[in-house]
Write a structure and sequence with these properties.
Distance between the termini: 71 Å
Helix content: 55-70%
Number of strands: 2
Largest sheet: 2 strands, antiparallel
Number of domains: 2
Strand content: 5-15%
Order of helices and strands: HHHHEE
Number of helices: 4
């Protein structure tokens, strides 16, 4: 009887370690690919390995944006300065040439 209880406890530890490992791996992978870690943690809690498989196959948002910026692709530039008509990166708060603040409205 004690052997069965020990196996049940061992099984519970295995399941807990499995979920913690899955969550840790999924959170790290989501962060590396440029996705929201919190959203993927919730999906991993709900769907487990299926969400992890989807995350592995998901495109890498960070490298795509970095490639666009390095190649001076126009889609990497989001706003045009109203003062000097210079195109600026999406993440820039101020114009690169004149220093005008980005007012999106």
């Amino acid at each position: 009887m004690n052997v069965l209880a020990g196996l049940g406890a061992l099984w519970a530890l295995f399941v807990i370690a499995y979920f913690v490992g899955c969550l840790a791996l999924g959170g790290w992978l989501a962060s590396e690919k440029g996705y929201s870690v919190g959203s993927w943690i919730v999906l991993l809690l709900l769907f487990g390995v299926l969400a992890l498989i989807v995350l592995v196959g998901a495109p890498d948002k960070k490298s795509r944006y970095n490639n666009l910026v390095q190649n001076n692709d126009p889609s990497a530039y989001d706003w045009v300065c109203k003062k000097c008509n210079n195109t600026n990166r999406k993440t820039a708060l101020f114009c690169n040439s004149c220093g005008e603040k980005n007012n999106p409205i």
